[in-house]
Amino acid sequence: MSSWGQLGFQDAGSYFMEEFIYFHDFTMMIILGVLSYVVVFLILGLTSGWVDSGFVEGQLIEFMWTIFPALILIQIAFPSLLLLYLIEDFSKSFLVCKVIGHQWYWSYEIKTESSELLASVDCYMLPREDAFGMRLLLTDEFLMLPINVPVRILVTSDDVIHSWTLPSLGIKGDAVPGRLNQLNLTLNRKAMFYGQCSEICGANHSFMPIMLMGVYSWEFFAWLDRL
């Protein structure tokens, strides 16, 4: 959950979000290096009247400023493509969670890979007086998923377009009527994660919070028995 004045990402709650943060930091280091290099030579060029003809015309320098940017782009492209392929890998999921957006609440159906329904729950936002200071974030029920278990998330809508978004997990799926969008999720720690609908879906768009709790497997099965 983000805090007031926070500039960076939220603490990662999934393995994919960890990789997103690593990739962001790696890319920012490259950007800062390139920016520092450009700024230094820009200042030198503006403040010094000395000009080296080797920098004005030369095969070697032209070769270098063509090859180095290409190598930098390759360094960024490979981990980026790897992350894209990992996000789309649904071959190892053990659970299926169907997320259905309504005006204006969320419904969840938890199934096995063989489409056996395990549980279903509807989550409505708590009124302001019951929210304990966490306005627009708490719901009367919440989704519970086991940690370290790959889960396939299917996102759809019953009426208009919504968007199921949890920033600390690095997932965002558009809920479109008549269409199923897939997400891949593996929680890495026990915690409560918060999100909100991030697609303007009507008058009460602001009142569609998301609560997801990562728990141990035995706690997850105990929760299923209570539903």
Automatic annotation (TrEMBL):
Component of the cytochrome c oxidase, the last enzyme in the mitochondrial electron transport chain which drives oxidative phosphorylation. The respiratory chain contains 3 multisubunit complexes succinate dehydrogenase (complex II, CII), ubiquinol-cytochrome c oxidoreductase (cytochrome b-c1 complex, complex III, CIII) and cytochrome c oxidase (complex IV, CIV), that cooperate to transfer electrons derived from NADH and succinate to molecular oxygen, creating an electrochemical gradient over the inner membrane that drives transmembrane transport and the ATP synthase. It catalyses: 4 Fe(II)-[cytochrome c] + O2 + 8 H(+)(in) = 4 Fe(III)-[cytochrome c] + 2 H2O + 4 H(+)(out). The gene is COX2. Its main location: mitochondrion. Keywords: Copper, Electron transport, Magnesium, Membrane, Metal-binding, Mitochondrion, Mitochondrion inner membrane, Respiratory chain, Translocase, Transmembrane, Transmembrane helix, Transport. This is Cytochrome c oxidase subunit 2. Its cofactor is Cu cation. Residues 1-91 form the Cytochrome oxidase subunit II transmembrane region profile domain. Residues 92-226 form the Cytochrome oxidase subunit II copper A binding domain. The keyword Transmembrane helix applies. It is found in: Mitochondrion inner membrane. GO terms for biological process: ATP synthesis coupled electron transport. It is a multi-pass membrane protein. GO terms for cellular component: mitochondrial inner membrane. The keyword Coiled coil does not apply. Belongs to the cytochrome c oxidase subunit 2 family.
